[in-house]
Design goal:
With 350 residues, the chain is an alpha+beta fold. The chain has helices at 37-48, 70-80, 85-98, 189-197, 205-224, 230-246, 252-259, 263-280, 292-299, 322-327; strands at 2-3, 8-17, 58-60, 108-120, 123-133, 136-144, 149-157, 164-170, 177-183, 199-201, 249-251, 287-289, 305-307, 313-315, 328-333, 338-343. A hairpin with a 2-residue loop joins strand 4 and strand 5.
Length: 350
């Protein structure tokens, strides 16, 4: 997690990147912006505030050797010699342009920033930021003349939403750079993260927690759902989330013992995990620390309700998955020719 209290921008330059496929060119500035103190603070919030909730950490990757990585090399140039800032920022935009080969990729304004004193893990860091604004917003400006106020409609960058961005933090360690990235537009995610930045997850507790939850969601969808009711699928997901909620560390055998009721289910899960790891080219440790921020983020993506074709929904509780086992019965009504859920309760809650 980062903190912004002390962060300062040393240099900032803005360019405009086009779309290579549509043959719209770039506009490359030659010199840095000069900004007043009030605008400086606004820009700090605009650039860095979206990363306050970023949990996944990335590192540079390259198919051959990191010595050939364009973004890494240009970031190193800027940090080693600030005199290269303008030229290196132009090359970053040219590299971004070269990746803009799909007609749906939007043109935009690209801010390149050199900054210092961004707090990460209780240490002040320096680094390079690359931020892309793709969408303009309309606003009204009041114009005063001798007798009246008039309105003029203008377009500009909204300080409330950053479309794409990354901060490349110098750690003074190996690997040297720790990277955070955000992208508000999912339709071109590969273009920003993979093609332009060339980054991949750092395999830490955030990485392991997210992937293990993905493993659970995949098992529920692909193994439980085809052979059981929606209730069984939701029960498994709720039991999984409860385990993550109640434990600081996940150990494979403890998770399986608490979540699964019989040996056949455990064996099916172990087999599915083997295929999951092979497909994603990862390998879970036998035990890893659970990332609570990732858990809270991923819980919002899990559907913990049963939706019926009679326009009725039954929502189950992440914190008390055993309730559905004790107070919900499944059955079939021969007279109506319909399946049913019977729900037991003492009183309705406000």
């Amino acid at each position: 997690m980062i903190e912004l209290g002390a962060v300062e921008i040393d240099k900032i330059i803005v360019h405009r990147v086009g779309n290579k496929n549509l043959e719209t060119g770039n506009f490359l500035s030659e010199s840095c912006l000069v900004v007043e103190e009030e605008i400086h603070r606004s820009l700090c919030q605009y650039f860095f505030k979206p990363f306050l909730k970023a949990t996944e950490t990335y590192q540079f990757k390259h198919t051959v050797d990191l010595a050939y990585h364009p973004v890494k090399g240009l970031a190193e140039n800027i940090l080693a010699n600030e005199d290269t800032f303008e030229e290196s920022s132009q090359k970053l935009v040219e590299h971004l342009y070269d990746q803009s080969s799909h007609p749906h990729i939007k043109t935009g304004d690209v801010f390149v920033v050199l900054f210092h004193d961004l707090l990460l893990n209780e240490r002040l860091r320096k680094g390079v930021g690359i931020f892309k604004s793709e969408n303009k917003e309309s606003f009204l400006k009041l114009i005063e003349n001798d007798k009246n106020l008039a309105l003029n409609q203008l377009e500009g960058i909204s300080l409330n939403k950053l479309d794409k961005g990354c901060i490349i933090l110098d750690t003074d360690e190996e690997p040297r750079f720790q990277i955070l990235s955000i992208d508000q537009n999912s339709y071109d995610a590969e273009y920003w993260k993979d093609d332009f930045l060339g980054i991949d997850f750092v395999e830490d507790k955030h990485f392991s927690t997210k992937n293990y939850l993905d493993l659970c969601k995949g098992f529920a969808e692909e193994v439980i759902k085809p052979h059981a009711t929606k209730k069984a699928e939701v029960d498994f997901l709720n039991a999984s989330v409860k385990f993550f909620n109640e434990n600081e560390k996940l150990e494979n055998h403890n998770f399986q013992d608490q979540v699964f009721e019989n040996v056949e289910q455990k064996e099916a899960f172990v087999d599915y995990q083997r295929h999951f790891e092979a497909e994603r080219e990862i390998k879970f440790e036998d035990a890893f620390d659970i990332s609570k921020p990732i858990l809270q983020k991923e819980k919002r993506k899990i559907k913990n309700y049963i939706k019926l074709d009679t326009n009725i929904q039954i929502k189950l509780d992440f914190n008390n998955p055993e309730s559905s086992q004790h107070f919900i019965e499944e059955g079939f009504d021969d007279e109506r020719g319909m399946r049913f859920y019977k729900v037991y309760f003492n009183k309705e809650m406000p």
